[in-house]
Amino acid sequence: MQRILIIGSPGAGKSTLARSLAERTGLPLHHLDQIHWLPGWVERDRDEERVVLDRLLAQDHWIIDGNYGSTLPQRIARADTVVWLDYPTALCLRRVLTRWWLYRSRSRPDMPADCPERIDLPFLRYVLTFRGAWAKRNAGALARFAGQTIRLRNSAQTQAWLAAL
Questions:
Q1: Sign of CA dihedral 108, 158, 128, 70
Q2: Predicted confidence band at 135 (pLDDT cuts at 50, 70, 90)?
Q3: Helix (H, G, I), strand (E, B) or coil at 47
Q4: Do residues 89 and 125 make contact, with C-beta atoms less than 8 angstroms apart?
Q5: Rounded to two decimals, what is the model's pTM?
């Protein structure tokens, strides 16, 4: 595992897993949210975002966590390992709400500065429909993936997998 992509629903624990993997492997960690967002919740220009992502993907060693479906094919093409956190929707929703409460007045470690945690009805709807909408998309993209796919369906599986590394 030299180029690891971590995908899954908001609230599944992508960034937490990515940090744990980076500590265990020594691989450099990149959060897609830090590539997509600029301070103050300003979206980075798409062309500039692609340039930044292309530079990261060209490297031989990395961990990248996040979804952003428009770049999934290009990220999968460079990854040698995809970890898919396919957790139950209710768990992800609970974690999103907990995360909002914990970080409501400040930015999370995986976000740019001046992006305090926020939540609104469209985002909650996104979390509620994510698993169904993305399952087919991810499965389709991963069906053509030549590398290793690790699909974890709960926290116990994830902890066991990490312990085995």
A1: positive
A2: confident
A3: helix
A4: no
A5: 0.92
